Amino acid sequence: MGYRGYPSGAILLWETDEAVPLQEFAVQQQKNPYQSTRLLLDGQQRLTSLSAVIRGEPVAVRGRKRPIELLFNLEHPDELAVVTEVNEDADDDEDENDGTDDEADSTEDELQQRFNKMTFVVATKKLEQMPQWVKVTDVFKTDSDATFLKRAGVNGFDDPCYEKYSQRLARLRSVRKYVYRMDVLERKLSYDEVTEIFVRVNSLGAKLRSSDLALAQITAKWRGALKTFQAFQDQCAKKGFELDLGLHLKNLVAFTTGQSRFLTVNTIPVASLQDGWNESVKGMLFCL
User: Does any domain span residue 132?
Assistant: First the structure.
């Protein structure tokens, strides 16, 4: 989005000194640039992905560190670019070699023609070998274009591709200077109000799974619940069952309400949630 100059949405923060349950963030902050405490409510995926690509550092996904490797097409068309997104919810056993399993009916030439129309794609070994495709992280690591231009066959200033490629590399690096708009929620808002805002903001764009939104609503009323859930998640993992936290939440709702949808989670009393959790733990341990 930043490469084309399109808006990339706002970052939602909450200015508060209230003690709230926090999740670890893949991007570390060495010091607080503000005089007050500001917590990140919405925008974690964007900031994490940008940081991983710009800094060239892998991100932790389900306990495994994975790099986010994107390729940039120096020969992309001038019209609207196509961006392929990394699906972090994909199964670990999926073939990650070329990302074209769903294109089995397409010929190799047809696939290559489709890639040639794209600006950014998730890295594949085959595309990495092609001179017009460069690693985005490598571009961010240096302000020199020489290596990329030479690899693409540009041998001098009089080459017709010299100016085009140089301008495109400069525009790509300018993504580092993109200024996000930040919406800051007031200090006077309660944790419950902020949770409601978070759920409404994310449910509109379906940016998060329903279990993530349910977790926000549950922890808003049941303080310390996140640590309780994660402790049991670790207990299951030690038994050889590395289960997503969303599955444990679905069990919690099922034992509490008799159905597994998260729609009513904000109306469930804390005592009922705690009783339902204890029952779901017993059920899960029996199952394991």
Answer: yes
